[in-house]
Amino acid sequence: MFDPKAWIDAEDLGDVVALVHSHPDGAAVLSPLDRQAQQQTSLPWWLVSSRGLVEFPCVPHLLGRQFDFGQLDCYTLMKDAYALAGHTLPDFRYEEDWWQKGQNLYIDNLPKHGFYQVKNPEPGDVLMIQLASDKANHCAVYLGDNELLHHCPNRLSNRQSFGGYWYYHLHSIWRYERWQSSDFMGIYNDLVAGSS
Predict the structure, then answer these.
(1) C-alpha distances in Å from residue 127, one per residue of 11, 72, 89, 192
(2) Is 169 one of the catalytic residues?
(3) Is the sign of the CA dihedral 146, 150, 155, 158 positive or negative?
(4) Sheet holding 170-176, edge to edge
(5) 139 flagged as catalytic
(6) What is the largest CA-CA distance in the chain?
(7) What per-residue confidence (pLDDT) applies to 11?
(8) In the annotation, is 23 catalytic?
(9) Which is catalytic among the residues 87, 150, 151, 171?
(10) Coil, strand, or helix at residue 157?
């Protein structure tokens, strides 16, 4: 946590635009307490750790988001989950119902941005799902223990069992080439912070 006096002193010097702190012997991701405090500041946090200096943008908690196409949807949930794990994915501009207009947004772009296909999911992998389409038009993040994190239209973002319906409509599984198993702690810590 930060010192309130240091915060006031910083504000006296001008606008506070980010908060920098360190985990010298700890994880290279924000802790649950860090995520709660970051939400209070509404600022990007920079973390100095064994990974070096990494920026963590202040994204909404992963669970309980209101759906807003192009702003808070399945891709932005995946992108924000990866940001909390210390990885920056590109911003894509896409039309609503792009899969009905001959586009293949995910399958065309995942390999270009460091993802490769795997057969069995591990925590942090991306699950590509086909919903009423011949194209993969929905993405989810695999949480392990047969659970996924995703965001469907007209629903809050949530975690659900990766079985039955979702497993039946699975198109493919993708892994990020720079992913390390410890990166998943960034996602896990947000799930803990967002539910407390």
Answers:
(1) 43, 18, 16, 22
(2) no
(3) positive
(4) 115-118, 170-176, 126-129, 138-144, 147-150, 158-161
(5) no
(6) 57
(7) 72
(8) no
(9) 150
(10) coil
Sorted by sequence, the CB contacts under 8 Å of residue 35 that are 6+ apart come out as 61, 84, 189, 190, 193, 194
- pLDDT of 94: 83
Which position among 87, 138, 151, 171 bears the catalytic label?
A: 138
Which string of b and e fits 72-109 if b means at least 16 CB within 10 Å? bbbbbbbbbbbbbbbbebeeeebeeeebeeeeebbbee
pTM: 0.91
Nearest of 70, 69, 23, 53 to residue 189 by alpha carbon: 23
Q: Domains (ranges, CATH) in the chain? A: 1-58 (no CATH), 64-183 (3.90.1720.10)
- The token pair at 7 is 């915060």
Per-residue pLDDT of the chain in tens (196 residues, 90 and over written 9): 567 777 677 677 778 788 888 887 778 899 999 999 899 889 999 998 877 888 999 999 999 999 999 899 999 999 999 999 999 999 877 888 888 888 888 999 999 999 999 999 999 999 999 998 989 999 999 999 999 999 999 999 999 999 999 999 999 999 999 999 999 999 999 999 987 6
- Rg (C-alpha) for the chain, rounded Å, is 18
Say which amino acid occupies 68.
D
CB 47 within 8 A of CB 21: yes
| End-to-end CA, the chain | 17
